[in-house]
Specification:
Shape of chain B: elongated
Structural class of chain B: alpha+beta
Largest sheet of chain B: 6 strands, mixed
Helix content of chain B: 10-25%
Distance between the termini of chain B: 34 Å
Number of strands of chain B: 28
Strand order of the largest sheet of chain B: 4-3-2-5-6-7
Radius of gyration of chain B: 28 Å
Helix content of chain A: 25-40%
Strand content of chain B: 35-45%
Oligomer: heterodimer
Number of helices of chain B: 6
Number of strands of chain A: 8
Shape of chain A: globular
Structural class of chain A: alpha+beta
């Protein structure tokens, strides 16, 4: 399985016979902060509002109980797309089919030692902590496609969520391979909604 | 490889440079004028020429703080829409062990905790003009200081400079406040709590090696500067003169290891006596001509019937390509030989005798 890194130094995994690169993990606050450091429409007030729903915690302090605080949640779909545009050409929210295909492909992949030569120190620390906490038997376990956050995906012109957070973060009975999660009010921030991005290569 | 005679100079800025990091975000917008004024007043109070720089939260590009009065409005506008993050600035400063950092603003810096426990954050002072810059205390923070107090906090003068390198042995230097040290076979030139750390020097060192100076500031911050190569002619000349005819006679006697009669008090002195105590007290130099010379190495040179002296004023005399006599502080001079393989100056069993022959017709004493 081939790995590379995005411009924030976080790993991308190539799947679908080389047609798609996908974030190995949900987008983290550290990644988003690279975007926020540049002048744009998102300012301190915006970020305070997002962090009020899921407070920020340094990756150096993450524990088994607090690991979701590394990830960016409380995001609206259009805000995730703004980040995707900043990340580079071709980055987008995955479709439902792409997200589920990623689950199936990662399920049988072992966790490799190295996942991208240009990884930032913060990402390396995060991955090491996740490996200790999750004891992943496959890349699917490590990827937190299950047990992570609910992630924005495209369905036609709309966006909805796929995922099955662990009960301690948000109680639910969802199966992301069959269930879709729709926020009651799409323009309201949901504390457990985050995203991971894909880039279609073909 | 091997030792080579070289010349160099070092000039030192007296205080650690300060990095100003300003909060130009919306949360600090109403304090913009106050922030700019504070920076200007602190700069006036700090020693000049220290290489200060200025950044904005979220922005890794440096700015010249001296230009803040001209460009403050434009700079703040250009950085207004950045979220308050320190990482882009700290990543640029990661290798700078020499700087003190002050962050001035109002409102939370979101990623400060990511740098907890790092040397950078330990050297960072947070200045809040209204709302605290940190959610939890990971760095020192003060509230609304006046410029004078802030400048005093930031002023981090150099307290020690140490020149060193492979095979380094200084043989002549023009700043007498520096002292020579030889520790574990390595020579260094050390200046502590000086008013002026500038120095020009003549030294021995391995051919391809750069000699550097390690600077230490009051806060413990360190910096390394390279010693700049110079020409021999740029070094100040040593004090020179001629012995009087009577002193030449005395000199000829001591070379024969004969006792002599002190020219100044009539006391009979052993041949190696340099300071006669015939009249009690600290004593007087047997060569009156040397009275105005500073202590340290004196080289006598026989030239036909005359004898010249050169007051080098340091504690090292090079005897051969790889041997030297070194006098450190009040210790007796010791003989050293440079071991090329181990790259160290090693003490030998040879004794340095007063009027030690340092060349053809050249004799060394340590005053």
């Amino acid at each position: 399985m081939r790995f590379s890194c995005d411009r924030t130094g976080f790993p991308l995994v190539t799947v679908a016979e080389g047609r798609i690169q996908a974030h190995l993990l949900p987008v983290t606050k550290v990644q988003c902060e690279r975007f926020l450091a540049e002048p744009n429409a998102f300012d301190d007030t915006w970020y305070e509002g997002v962090l009020a729903l899921n407070p920020r915690l340094s990756v150096h302090r993450l524990t088994n109980e607090t690991r979701e605080q590394a990830f960016l949640t409380g995001l609206l779909a259009e805000e995730a797309l703004a980040f995707a545009r900043w990340l580079g050409d071709g980055f987008d929210l995955p479709t439902i089919e792409e997200w589920r295909m990623l689950c199936r492909e990662l399920e049988h992949q072992p966790v490799p030692g190295l996942m991208g030569a240009d990884m930032t120190p913060a990402c390396a620390v995060l991955l090491e902590r996740l490996k200790v906490q999750l004891r992943p038997r496959s890349l699917l376990d490590l990827s937190l496609l299950r047990g992570g956050v609910v992630e924005w995906v495209r369905k036609g012109k709309d966006c909805l969520g796929l995922g099955a957070p662990r009960q301690e973060f948000h109680p639910n009975l969802w199966d992301p391979l069959t269930d879709e999660v729709r926020p009651l009010r799409p323009q309201e921030r949901v504390p457990f909604f985050g995203c991971r991005l894909v880039r279609r290569l073909s | 490889m091997g030792l080579r005679e070289r010349y160099g100079s070092l000039s030192v800025t007296p205080s650690a440079p300060v990095v100003f990091v300003l909060d130009a975000s919306q949360s600090a917008e109403r304090h913009q004028a106050e922030i700019v004024t504070l920076v200007q007043e602190v700069l006036r109070a700090l020693p000049g020429g220290a290489g200060h720089t200025l950044y904005f939260l979220g922005n890794p590009a440096p700015h010249d703080p001296e230009a803040i009065s001209l460009h403050a409005t434009r700079w703040c506008e250009a950085n207004r829409r950045r979220v308050s993050l320190i990482t882009p600035v700290f990543e640029v400063l990661a290798e700078r062990e020499d700087v003190r950092i002050v962050v001035i603003g109002s409102g939370r810096i979101f990623d400060l905790a990511d740098w907890e426990g790092t040397s950078l954050l330990e050297r960072t002072l947070l200045v809040s003009l209204e709302v605290s810059l940190q959610e939890e205390a990971v760095a020192e923070e003060i509230v609304r200081p006046d410029a004078g107090m802030l400048a005093r906090r930031l002023h981090d003068p150099v307290v020690k400079v140490e020149l060193q390198g492979r095979g380094f042995l200084p043989t002549l230097w023009d700043n007498s406040e520096y002292r020579l040290e030889v520790r574990d076979g390595e020579g260094s030139l050390v200046g502590e709590r000086l008013e002026n750390y500038g120095v020009m020097l003549h030294f021995l060192a391995e051919s391809a090696v750069s000699i550097s100076a390690k600077l230490t500031c009051v806060s413990g911050a360190t910096n390394t500067l390279a010693v700049h190569p110079t020409r021999a002619s740029e070094l100040p000349e040593a004090e020179v003169g001629w012995l009087t005819p009577e002193e030449v006679q005395l000199f000829q006697q001591v070379l024969q290891r004969e006792s002599f009669t002190c020219l100044r008090c009539g006391q009979t002195c052993r041949w190696e006596t340099l300071r006669c105590k015939g009249q009690g007290g600290f004593g007087h130099l047997v060569y009156r001509s040397l009275e105005r010379c500073r202590s340290g190495l004196i080289l006598f040179r026989q030239r036909n019937e005359r004898v010249s002296f050169e007051a080098v004023g340091c504690g090292v005399v090079r005897l051969t390509t790889d041997t030297a006599a070194i006098k450190v502080g009040r210790e007796r001079p010791a003989m050293y030989r440079y071991h090329t393989g181990r790259e160290r100056w090693e003490i030998t069993e040879d004794r340095f005798l007063t009027y030690h022959q340092a060349g053809d017709g050249v004799y060394a004493v340590f005053l």
